[in-house]
Design goal:
- The complex is a heterodimer of chains A (120) and B (107).
- With 120 residues, chain A is mostly beta strands.
- Helix content of chain A is 0%, strand content 49%.
- In chain A, strands 2, 4, 5, 6, 9, 10 and 11 form a seven-stranded mixed β-sheet that branches. Chain A has a four-stranded antiparallel β-sheet with strand order 1-3-8-7, with no helix packed on it.
- The radius of gyration of chain A is 13 Å and the shape is globular.
- The N and C termini of chain A lie far apart (40 Å).
- With 107 residues, chain B is mostly beta strands.
- Classes of the chains: A mainly beta (120), B mainly beta (107).
- At the A-B interface, strand 5 and strand 10 of A face strand 4 and strand 5 of B.
Chain lengths: 120, 107
């Protein structure tokens, strides 16, 4: 069955960096676009970034463009989110998800979420 | 950016009743590119409906989606206790791929 297992969340100081991981199994990872979404405490969902199967297409929300970087290792079946210059407002639960039909695709499977807290 | 406005913010119903949730985009969204998700406390969202009216794998047929003009609707035909949750619509037509603010369905 499709599984997305996330790791990497932590408490980090403002201005710090963190890398999140999302390990995929149960499907052909290299055939699927992947995406990151976050949810601030008590708030709704915010889409952050998309990556195509071969890294040729990457798209970001304005709120993270220039600070966050999405990447993938198809051989290891892992999706990453490198987060730099973190701010208090980046505090959230971060989810990875699969977008099976490209960028114009609903997110059909989600990871369990990992918590990032940015505070001094 | 396409803003999705969901209504109502909170819907109070009882098991066995019918729920109707709405999602209105600030600009045109192709019907093929509208999804609905369910989220329970402490859990990741779960895809219910994609393409405005197609049920995702394993979703019971009491959940249905529709489009009328520019608006989208999620209907839950007969509420079960496990359906009480927060529901989000999402457009994946144009970047950024935005979500509505959510409708909380409570008992």
């Amino acid at each position: 069955q499709v599984q997305l297992v996330q790791s990497g969340g932590d408490l980090v100081k403002p201005g710090g960096s963190l890398r999140l991981s999302c390990a995929a199994s149960g499907f052909t990872f290299s055939d699927s676009f992947m995406t990151w979404i976050r949810q601030a405490p008590g708030k709704g969902l915010e889409w952050l970034a998309y990556i195509s199967t071969s890294n040729s297409y990457i798209d970001y929300a304005d709120s993270v463009k220039g600070r966050f970087a999405i990447s993938r290792d198809n051989a290891k079946k892992i999706l990453y989110l490198q987060m730099n210059t973190l701010r208090a407002e980046d505090t959230a639960v971060y989810y990875c998800a699969r977008a099976p039909f490209g960028s114009h695709s609903a997110f059909d499977f989600w990871g369990q979420g990992t918590t990032v807290a940015v505070a001094s | 950016e396409i803003v999705l406005t969901q209504s109502p913010d909170t819907l109070s119903l009882s098991p066995g009743e019918r729920a109707t949730l709405s999602c209105r985009p600030s600009q045109s969204v192709g019907a093929t590119y509208l999804a609905w998700y369910q989220q329970k406390p402490g859990q990741a969202p779960r895809l219910l409906i994609y393409g405005a009216n197609s049920r995702a794998t394993g979703i019971p047929d009491r959940f249905s989606g529709s489009a009328s003009g520019a608006d989208f609707t999620l209907t839950i035909g007969r509420l079960e206790p496990e359906d009480f949750a927060v529901y989000y619509c999402q457009q994946y037509d144009k970047s950024p791929y935005t979500f509505g603010q959510g409708t909380k369905l409570e008992i």
